[in-house]
Amino acid sequence: MKILGAKVIVCSPGRNFVTLKIETDEGIYGLGDATLNGRELAVVSYLEDHLVPCLIGRDPFQTEDIWHYFYRGAYWRRGPVTMTAIAAIDMALWDIKGKALGVPVYNLLGGKSRNSVLVYAHATGRDIGETVDEVERYRQKGYLAIRAQSGIPGLASTYGVPKDQKYYEPAERGLPSESLWSTEKYLRHVPKLFEALRNTLGDDLHLLHDVHHRLTPIQAARLGKELEPFHLFWMEDPVAAELQDGFRLIRQHTTTPLAVGEVFNSIWDAEQLMREQLIDYLRMSIVHGGGITAMKKAADFAALYHVQTGAHGASDMSPVCMGAALHLDLAINNFGIQEHMLHNAQTEETFPHAYFFRDGSMYPGDEPGLGVDIKEDVAARFPYERAYLPVNRKEDGTLFHW
Ligand code: EZ4
Ligand code: CO
User: Fold this and answer.
1) Residue 23 has what DSSP assignment?
2) Distance 37 CA to ligand 1 centre (A)
3) I want to staple 367 with a disulfide (CB 3.0 to 4.6 A). Which of 31, 105, 333, 354 is the partner?
4) Residue with CA closest to ligand 1 atom 12
């Protein structure tokens, strides 16, 4: 089998998605997600101008060689644009392999290590009362694990809290919006949120929280300690993780489990964090972490250090990535949890998929390949619109982590 060509499909069914479609001489095609939120067209160019010309004529079964060809062969290593582009190719090739062999991709990765994939949903509210109600609503839908975020008194907008639309979607059309931040107000508020959640909902539900990179290690240590009575499943991205040494400080002070890595794009971003057992869950996604080939290796490395996976699965990862994630989640031994943020109706219409949700878990389905398709005619109805993630400033105007 040979690769005939590949095309990049950009669409915006409510938000932007970039999808790679690789075609073969046997009529089988594969799909890969190439979406990098707010920087979409950089990946389009990287693929169209630099990678796709090198794919033509290759054997799509050679996922390992092709991965190294584009990783080592670029000379320039890592980085979100490069790794997202490589991930898209890798996903599409695994999809082709599965379709050609007539098996779902999880059967090429070791088969089923479990029956179902535990997922967590996002509950948000403008205040504690609304968030408690939202968590309850998700629980009634069958979710066993729920991330809880709430507005902070005295701050006009907060990460994770929707402005007008029903579901939280951080990217906005037009130029970047700006939000305001106060660490003091945040740290006073969050323990009250989780106290209210446990008092109202009891101890059974898994509760998660995303700090979104906004604390220093010692502040994160304080928060982790104060949240200990409420037994979180995890505290996510407590600090920006470039300084991996910083996590030692958090670890010394708290037993609240830590999840890190949605912005990572290489195992080297997490190598020390895992080797020194400074984190509990690796959040790197297939689309931003270099594909199935790279993430299988990262997961196997994590397993040596008691680290489990908890892949990023926000709505800016397309259904193609969600499908790929579920195959890997089902197959690896050290799977922890999978994020599951709902896609809107137009996205569901654009990307038909075999995966489904039932009783708090998800299932990749048993179709050959990844089990996700794209309707190009539907995609064409939703052309690209420039959109950005917000930027975040402290109340005195200092630019801060978003
Ligand atoms: O900010 O996906 O845990 N989920 C998150 C997300 C990320 C967005 C960035 O594109 O932190 O909301
Ligand atoms: Co996050």
Assistant:
1) E
2) 9
3) 354
4) 314
- 312 CA distance to ligand 2 middle (Å): 7
User: Which residue has the CA at smallest separation from atom 5 of ligand 1?
Assistant: 314
Measured distance CA(272)–CA(10) in Å, rounded: 36
Give the chain's end-to-end CA distance (angstroms, integer): 45
Is 40 touching ligand 1 by the criterion CB < 6 Å?
Answer: no
Q: What is the pLDDT of residues 230-251, one digit of tens each?
A: 999 999 999 999 999 999 999 9
Catalytic residues: 159, 212
Q: Count CB neighbours of 198 within 10 A.
A: 16
DSSP 149-202: EE--TT-S--TT--SSSSS----EESSPPEEEE-HHHHHHHHHHHHHHHHHHH-
Q: Whose CA is nearest to atom 11 of ligand 1?
A: 212
pLDDT above 70 covers what percent of the chain? 99
Residue 251 is which amino acid? R
Q: Is the beta carbon of 90 within 6 A of some atom in ligand 1? A: no
- Decide: 269 in ligand 1 pocket, CB within 6 A: no
pLDDT tens per residue, range 150-165? 999 999 888 878 776 6
For ligand 1, atom 8, the nearest C-alpha belongs to 314
Tell whether pTM > 0.85: yes
Atom number of ligand 1 nearest to Cα 339 = 3
Mention every residue, 6+ apart, whose C-beta is less than 8 A from residue 236. 147, 208, 209, 210, 211, 212, 258, 259, 260, 262, 283
- Ligand 1 atom having least distance to the Cα of 317: 2
Among the bound ligands, name the one nearest to the CA of residue 38: 1
Using CA atoms of 297, 53, 96, 37 in order, give the dihedral in degrees to the nearest 10: 60
Any ligand 1 atom below 6 A from CB of 263: no
> Both tokens of residue 123?
């509950």
Query: Which fold is adopted by the domain 108-368?
Result: TIM Barrel (3.20.20)
Query: Residue 175, Cβ neighbours under 10 Å: how many?
Result: 10
Write the burial class of residue 245 (CB in 10 Å: 0-12 exposed, 13-18 middle, 19+ buried).
exposed
Instruction: Tell me the pLDDT tens digit for each residue of 24-35.
Output: 999 999 999 999
Looking at domain 3-104, does it have CATH number 3.30.390.10? yes
